[in-house]
Write a structure and sequence with these properties.
The chain is 46% helix and 22% strand. A five-stranded mixed beta sheet has the order 3-2-1-4-5, with helices on both faces. It has one domain: Nucleotidyltransferase, domain 5 (2-Layer Sandwich), CATH 3.30.420.140. It is an alpha/beta fold and 148 residues long. The longest helix is centred in the last third of the chain and has 27 residues. Could be a nuclease involved in processing of the 5'-end of pre-16S rRNA. Its EC number is 3.1.-.-.
Length: 148
């Protein structure tokens, strides 16, 4: 598996972004984007425009969007929202494919890891979305390697 992948953690307020190395081994944080909820329906929201720019900058071959499955394994309202975001993003960045990946507990795990490193409060809120994107992408990369 070669080529950079971007991982995306979609929240109601922010979007965390991570990237892989070209060999698909390690995910690292990139940015936290503010959600553009005020964009007109026919316009490309600013967060998606920035994701498109990042796809170009890193020459990404795929984007992995976290799908928030609940603990029972069901898709609730947050999953419906993430699927809609992923579809709209796929339209914006075509022909680069967009995949969905189970992100169960990614933000909880990311918050715990940041706390263990002494990152708390406002500093944690500023980077937790990036850390969650790293968790999403790293899990996806590991699963891809196990399949091959």
């Amino acid at each position: 598996m070669t080529g950079v992948r971007l991982g995306v953690d979609v929240g109601q307020v922010r979007v965390g972004v991570a990237r892989s190395d070209p060999h698909g081994v390690l995910a690292t944080p990139v940015a936290t984007l503010a959600r553009d909820l005020a964009a007109a329906p026919e316009a490309v929201p600013a967060d998606m425009a920035e994701l498109s720019r990042l796809v170009s900058e890193f020459e990404a071959v795929e984007v992995v969007v976290g799908l928030p499955v609940n603990l029972a394994g069901r898709h609730g309202p947050a999953a419906v929202h993430a699927k809609a975001y992923a579809q709209r993003l796929a339209d914006v960045i075509a022909p680069v494919p967009v995949a969905l990946s189970d992100e169960r507990m990614s933000t909880v795990v990311a918050s715990r890891r940041l706390s263990e490193r002494g990152v708390r409060g406002k500093r944690q809120r500023a980077v937790v979305d990036q850390a969650a994107a790293v968790e999403i992408l790293q899990s996806w990369l590991d699963a891809q390697r196990r399949r091959t």
